[in-house]
Amino acid sequence: MNENTTTALVELKQLSKHFGEGATRVDALRDVSLTIHAREVVGLLGPSGSGKSTLLNAIGCILEPDSGWMRLDGDVVYDNRWLRRDLRRLRLEKIGFIFQKHNLLPFLNCTDNVAIVLTLAGWPKKAAVERARELLAYLQVDHRMEAMPGQLSGGEAQRVAIARALANRPRIILADEPTAALDSERAGRVMDLLHKVAIEQDAAIIAVTHDEKILGRLDRIYRMVDGRLTDQEDDG
Ligand SMILES: Nc1ncnc2c1ncn2[C@@H]1O[C@H](COP(=O)(O)OP(=O)(O)OP(=O)(O)O)[C@@H](O)[C@H]1O
């Protein structure tokens, strides 16, 4: 970590979450504590069912933990309960999501798939479209601006999904298997892009991954087992 990466963007202390009760109880998060700084691209690894998605969803304020403490981009948002009433706005302000299946809306072209995030946040349509075009150019998919999601290659769709996640300039970007569907070369390019975004936007990126190809491209790796974080590893 260099001296410019000191701003803590994601801070968790003893975050816990269970599902079910009695014999069916699952402790999906057990006292998870971690700190992730601006300009870091961090990987979250672990076997199926170990709690990775639960952790990503808790950080994304989609899922309410049972207990613990969470500060996002300097604001304490959870202290044994949500401290912000408008979680949707919180998400729009602070968080960008990149989903494995892209989640692009099939009936909107690429520009509108990005612009819609901004119009939902209250931007005028014209400004939203301009920003969407700018982002698609930044991600080098501007030649596909008018294409519908069904017409895109896997790599192109992933870049449009990343453009959408960046639209509101979030400082925390959560990615679920961002390279799973891509060959090594495209996966490498997506990783280059995520590093570029982390540096240029002073953002923290947390990627759930099973993808061995990209392990060397992560600044740090956290491993989860049975809802617990095991020791973090620096990249090799
Ligand atoms: N909504 C839910 N209701 C009940 N149990 C759940 C729910 N969500 C997750 N779980 C359970 O919590 C545990 C952690 O699940 P989670 O999806 O976080 O794991 P994961 O590490 O992301 O797995 P995968 O790699 O398969 O996506 C699992 O045992 C899962 O069955």
Can you offer a commentary on this structure?
This protein has 236 residues and is an alpha/beta fold. The protein has one domain (8-108, 148-234): Rossmann fold (3-Layer(aba) Sandwich). 30% of the residues lie in helices and 27% in strands. It contains six helices and eleven strands. A hairpin with a 2-residue loop joins strand 4 and strand 5. Helix 3 (110-120) runs parallel beside helix 5 and helix 4 packs across helix 5 (154-166). It starts with 7 loop residues before the first strand and ends with a strand. Adenosine-5'-triphosphate binds at residues 19-20, 26, 28, 46, 48-54. This is ABC transporter ATP-binding protein. Belongs to the ABC transporter superfamily. InterPro entries: AAA+_ATPase (IPR003593), ABC_transporter-like_ATP-bd (IPR003439), ABC_transporter-like_CS (IPR017871), ABC_transpr_LolD-like (IPR015854), MacB-like_ATP-bd (IPR017911), P-loop_NTPase (IPR027417). GO terms for molecular function: ATP binding.
How is the secondary structure organized here?
Blueprint: E1 8-19, E2 26-37, E3 41-45, H1 52-59, E4 67-72, E5 75-79, H2 87-94, E6 95-98, H3 110-120, H4 125-138, H5 154-166, E7 172-176, H6 184-200, E8 204-208, E9 220-225, E10 228-229, E11 233-234
Parallel strand pairs: 3-8, 3-9, 6-7, 7-8
Antiparallel strand pairs: 1-2, 1-4, 4-5, 9-10, 9-11
Bound molecules: adenosine-5'-triphosphate.
Adenosine-5'-triphosphate (ATP) binds at residues 19-20, 26, 28, 46, 48-54.
